[in-house]
Design a protein that fits this description.
single chain, 163 residues, alpha+beta, Ubiquitin-like (UB roll), DNA polymerase, domain 1, 2 domains, 6-stranded mixed beta sheet, 5 helices, 6 strands
């Protein structure tokens, strides 16, 4: 439960990547800025700040959202997941493995948001078509790869997960 202090800041409590976080925030602070600032979640990239590029995509209570379009106070009591929940170098998620194998990233700026969107989508659609993935990616801008290796990597990961 949040409460407002005399200076106008609101205290929120939430879970970020499995860790409990409690902080006093300005009511106008964007979730993307909160995650990158006090939470040091550097996998949350900020590109357009208009919800168009998808670089800031995170999961809030299981739903993929654009962190630049959400206020931090809206997540009070929620569970927020960034790309950090997928895996690390020694224990990568199948999506990360397939992105690496398919050379589906170049500069990497769009990658965290795409990975979160893809993992969230695959949880409910384990057997997507190429067209399904292309539609999913229509909400993400990538200026480096041309999308083909990204689509292939997501399809590969879906197949691996079904085995």
């Amino acid at each position: 439960m949040s409460y407002c202090s005399k200076d106008g800041r609101t205290t929120i409590s939430l879970e970020v990547d499995g860790k409990r976080v409690k902080a006093a925030v300005s009511p106008r602070l964007l979730l993307s800025d909160f995650l990158r600032g006090p939470c040091a979640a550097k996998g949350v990239h900020v590109g357009c700040e208009h919800g168009v590029c998808g670089a800031c995509t995170v999961r809030v209570d299981g739903q993929a959202v654009r962190a630049c379009l959400m206020l931090a106070i809206q997540t009070d009591g929620s569970r927020v997941e960034t790309v950090k929940v997928l895996g690390i170098a020694d224990a990568m998620h199948p999506l990360q493995e397939r992105f690496q194998a398919r050379h589906a990233l170049q500069c990497g700026f769009c990658t965290p948001g795409i990975l979160i969107s893809a993992q969230t989508y695959l949880r409910e659609h384990p057997a997507p078509t190429r067209r399904d993935i292309e539609e999913l990616l229509s909400g993400h801008l990538c200026r480096c790869t041309g999308y083909t290796p990204i689509v292939d990597a997501i399809l590969d990961a879906a197949e691996l997960e079904r085995r």
